[in-house]
């Protein structure tokens, strides 16, 4: 899977699974950038074939409902949806 990288403060490993057409995903990206957090993201809807299968398989490890946005912090903490207070608490 080819994640896109956004530079910022190197606190935790932050991975965002998102959709390119999702307004809440866009808000999540904007918040992460406002907080100055370094993160990687993948627009799952822009993948196809084997890459999409791998992306969904990876996402299901953290969010069995495969809903967006999903933020994974240090491969253990998961925030599903645009939960601004949770995001700020964990990463702010």
TrEMBL record:
Source lineage: Archaea, Methanobacteriati, Methanobacteriota, Methanomada group, Methanobacteria
Domain GST N-terminal: 12-92
Annotated signal sequence range: none
Family matches, as PROSITE patterns: GLUTAREDOXIN_2 (PS51354), GST_NTER (PS50404)
Domain of life: Archaea
InterPro entries: Glutaredoxin, Glutathione_S-Trfase_N, Thioredoxin-like_sf
Pfam families named in the record: Glutaredoxin
Protein name, per record: GST N-terminal domain-containing protein
């Amino acid at each position: 899977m080819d994640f896109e990288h956004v530079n910022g403060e190197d606190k935790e490993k932050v991975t965002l699974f998102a959709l390119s057409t999702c307004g809440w995903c866009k808000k999540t990206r904007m918040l992460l950038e406002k907080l100055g957090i370094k993160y990687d993201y993948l627009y799952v809807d822009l993948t196809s074939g084997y890459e999409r299968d791998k992306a969904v398989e990876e996402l299901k490890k953290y969010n069995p409902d495969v809903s967006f946005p999903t933020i994974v912090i240090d491969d253990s903490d998961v925030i599903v949806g645009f939960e601004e207070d949770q995001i700020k608490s964990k990463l702010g």
